[in-house]
Each structure stands twice: as structure tokens, then as C-alpha cells.
């Protein structure tokens, strides 16, 4: 379309909104898009309450506006007219909401603007949210990005009123250079790792990455380790992830469960780590045992990009990645017997992961930027 080439030749102003910039997949994606926009000559603005990733965002050329836009309180509604004035003053082309409370502020501000001059409104369904009026705002975008087939199916099944052409499937991706196939840690890292965890030497390492929250399947992981050891396998479980300050009781519960199963010498809690790539590399198998389907499954993809075997429950976005890259690791959800059998088989006869990975960061960035450009050029109003 002629407008598309015209819009590509001018500078876009894109605003992304989310609750905070502390850590997590949504936050990482926001920074990645911001950097990509700046590299292509566009103006990138992020609105959040702030956090430790703000410095990185700014260093990569984006701007940050500190508003507590994700606070679940009627008081947050005061930001509606403030945001509306901001969008007008900055001649914003794209308003992209990535979380529910910020999306409500964006939607209400956007609805009150002149339809002929207001920005295009885009939302991303990052999670398989509870289905209710509060969550419904995530499908109110003129375009609605689904981060996986699982997210797209969730939208279609739970919000049948949405026109299918408004849904844009753009899977998340990782940078192959960041998680290269066959990666080996440096001798210096290995020396430090072995000094910190000498009891791991000679063991088969099973790694469960992710923050310690109830849905991540830690109890199943503990039972997996116990049953494999009962079969005579010399395995050791790594739980790699920080404890949620608001759920410290659950972290204590998990530690107690490992103790009760006699696994004090067979389980290690590393806490939050910044060297997950190296930890994947020294692991024999990475696990994904979320008890509820997840919208994507970034840790699964990161490990498989490196060629590290993964065993995971065959649902949600994890299922899509395993079907594409590692069918040998698919396990019927919450079938502990099948999980034990699958992991034991992979330990005894490792299956190589596919090198042909379609879930790249470049694909995700290019397709998102193309959507912004097309939306700003030609997207018609959707009520």
C-alpha cells in the first residue's frame, strides 16, 4: 500500500506501557522493542513506575516517564487525562499496552481522543489471564498481538467477539548470539562454579529455572529427583531462581519438601543468578513443569537454542516450542510416571536438539516494527 512506504520514511513516536521495569519477560521484550525502534530512527518512550532496568533502557536510547501506571487502585485513574494530554503533546503514533492496569489507563485515555488524530492502540496478550471484565481490556487494541499460538487460541476461545483479523501472531524470540548452540562456559567461570558448588562434580544435573512461585512445579521436580535417585541414577536438582518476597512461605515449603524426601544432598537452591546461560550449559536436562499452561516458555527456548535437552509439560506455549524443536521432551501434563520415564531415557540416550530455530529475536522485532508502521499508516478504527 502506498501509505506504508510513506510512513516508513518518517519518524514514529511509540509509547509502551507496563507496570514496572524490574525483571521478567515482558520487561525484557519492552527493552528489546525500544532499542530496535531507536536503531531504526524512531522515538521510543516507555511509561512505568521504574525499576532496575531503567538505566539500561535509557542507555539504549529510549525515554522513560515515571508514573505508577500499574497500581491496581481507583487512584490510578487520575492518570487518564494526564496520559491523554501527554499523547497529544508528544504527537504519539503508537500506544502499546503490555499489562492489564496500564492497558485500562491507555484505553480510557485513547477513547477520549479525536478518532482522526489519536494514536493507533495496540495491546499484547503476554499471559493466559483469568477471563473477566478486567482482563478483557487486553483484546481492546486495534491490533492485538498474541505471543504464541496458545495465546491466540486463548483470545479466540474466550473473547469470540474479537475479529480474527485484529489478532497478530508474533511469537517471542531469543537472540541466537546470546544463547549460541553448543556454548561452553569459560574456564574461569567453571572454576568459580566448581568452587561454589563442589558437590555437583560427577552428577547428572537437572535444572528447573524460574522464580520460586507455586505454579512452576517445584513439588513435581523434587519428586522427580527422588524417584530417579531411587532408581540408582546419580542426579542432582538445581532450582535456579529468586524467591518472591511476598511468597517466602512457599519457598520455605519447597525447602522442607526436599528435606522430607531426604534430598538435602541432592538439591541446590542457587537463588537468582545472572549467568543462566552458563548454568544451562552445565546442565544435562532443563525442566519446564508449570502446572498451568504458560503463554510462551522462554527458558525452554533459551536452553534448546544452546542444544541443551529439555523435558516439559506438553501444554501452552511450551508445547509449541517442544513440538518444533524437541519433540522427545514432551510430557503429558502432571503425569509424573511419564516425566520420570522421559527424563531417565534422555539421560541414558540423549537426543540432540534441532538447530533450526524459527523463534529468533530478529523475527519478533522486525514483525513488531512492521506492525507499528502498518498500523500508523492504515489501520482503521475498531470500536
Provide structural commentary.
Helices cover 40% and strands 15% of the residues. The protein is an alpha/beta fold. It folds into two domains: 2-173 and 361-378, Glycogen Phosphorylase B (Rossmann fold, 3-Layer(aba) Sandwich), CATH 3.40.50.2000; 187-348, 3-Layer(aba) Sandwich (Rossmann fold), CATH 3.40.50.2000. Helix 2 packs across helix 14 and helix 8 (218-230) packs across helix 13.
Give the helices and strands, then pairings.
Blueprint lengths: L1 H7 L4 E5 L7 H15 L3 E6 L5 H6 L3 E4 L12 H11 L4 E4 L2 H12 L8 E6 L17 E4 L2 H10 L8 E3 L17 H10 L7 E6 L8 H13 L4 E6 L7 H13 L6 E5 L4 H6 L3 E4 L9 H8 L4 E4 L2 H10 L4 E2 L4 H13 L12 H18 L5
Parallel strand pairs: 1-2, 1-4, 2-3, 4-5, 5-6, 6-7, 8-9, 8-11, 9-10, 11-12, 12-13
Strand order of the largest sheet: 3-2-1-4-5-6-7
| Computed structural class | alpha/beta
Mean pLDDT: 93
Note the overall shape: elongated
Number of strands: 13
Unreliable runs: 1-7, 379-383
Annotation field: number of helices? 14
| Count of distinct structural domains | 2
Q: What amount of the residues lies in strands?
A: 15-25%
Class of the largest domain in CATH? Answer: Alpha Beta
In short:
The protein is built from 14 helices and 13 strands. By secondary structure, it is α/β, with parallel strands linked by helices.
Provide the descriptors you would attach to this structure in a database record:
383 residues; alpha/beta; Rossmann fold; 2 domains; seven-stranded parallel sheet; 40% helix; disordered N terminus; disordered C terminus
Amino acid at each position: 500500500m502506498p501509505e506504508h512506504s510513506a510512513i516508513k520514511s518518517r519518524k514514529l513516536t511509540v509509547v509502551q506501557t507496563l507496570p514496572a521495569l524490574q525483571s521478567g519477560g515482558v520487561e525484557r521484550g519492552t527493552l528489546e522493542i525500544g532499542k530496535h525502534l531507536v536503531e531504526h530512527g524512531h522515538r521510543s518512550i516507555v511509561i512505568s513506575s521504574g525499576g532496575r532496568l531503567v538505566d539500561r533502557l535509557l542507555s539504549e536510547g529510549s525515554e522513560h516517564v515515571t508514573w505508577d501506571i500499574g497500581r491496581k487502585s481507583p487512584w490510578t485513574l487520575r492518570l487518564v487525562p494526564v496520559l491523554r494530554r501527554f499523547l497529544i503533546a508528544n504527537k504519539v503514533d503508537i500506544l502499546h499496552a503490555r499489562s492489564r492496569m496500564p492497558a485500562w489507563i491507555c484505553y480510557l485515555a485513547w477513547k477520549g481522543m479525536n478518532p482522526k488524530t489519536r494514536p493507533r492502540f495496540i495491546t499484547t496478550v503476554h499471559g493466559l489471564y483469568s477471563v473477566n471484565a478486567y482482563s478483557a481490556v487486553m483484546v481492546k487494541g486495534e491490533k492485538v498481538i498474541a505471543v504464541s499460538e496458545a495465546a491466540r487460541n486463548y483470545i479466540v476461545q474466550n473473547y469470540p467477539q474479537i475479529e480474527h483479523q485484529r489478532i497478530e501472531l508474533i511469537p517471542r524470540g531469543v537472540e541466537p548470539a546470546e544463547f549460541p548452540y553448543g556454548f561452553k562456559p569459560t574456564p574461569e567461570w567453571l572454576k568459580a562454579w566448581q568452587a561454589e558448588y563442589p558437590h555437583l562434580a560427577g552428577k547428572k544435573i537437572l535444572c528447573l529455572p524460574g522464580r520460586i512461585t507455586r505454579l512452576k512445579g517445584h513439588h513435581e521436580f523434587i519428586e522427580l529427583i527422588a524417584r530417579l535417585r531411587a532408581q540408582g541414577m546419580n542426579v542432582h536438582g538445581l532450582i535456579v531462581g529468586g524467591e518472591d518476597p511476598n511468597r517466602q512461605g512457599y519457598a520455605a515449603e519447597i525447602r522442607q519438601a526436599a528435606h522430607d524426601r531426604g534430598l538435602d544432598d541432592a538439591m541446590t537452591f542457587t537463588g537468582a543468578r545472572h549467568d543462566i546461560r552458563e548454568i544451562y550449559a552445565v546442565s544435562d536436562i532443563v525442566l519446564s513443569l508449570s502446572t498451568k499452561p504458560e503463554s510462551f516458555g522462554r527458558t525452554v527456548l533459551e536452553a534448546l537454542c544452546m542444544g541443551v535437552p529439555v523435558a516439559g509439560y506438553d501444554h501452552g506455549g511450551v508445547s509449541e516450542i517442544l513440538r518444533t524443536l524437541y519433540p522427545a521432551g514432551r510430557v503429558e501434563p502432571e503425569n509424573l510416571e511419564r516425566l520420570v520415564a522421559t527424563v531417565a531415557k534422555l539421560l541414558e540416550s540423549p537426543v540432540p536438539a534441532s538447530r533450526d530455530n524459527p523463534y529468533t529475536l530478529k523475527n519478533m522485532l522486525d514483525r513488531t516494527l512492521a506492525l507499528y508502521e502498518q498500523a500508523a499508516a492504515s489501520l482503521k478504527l475498531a470500536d
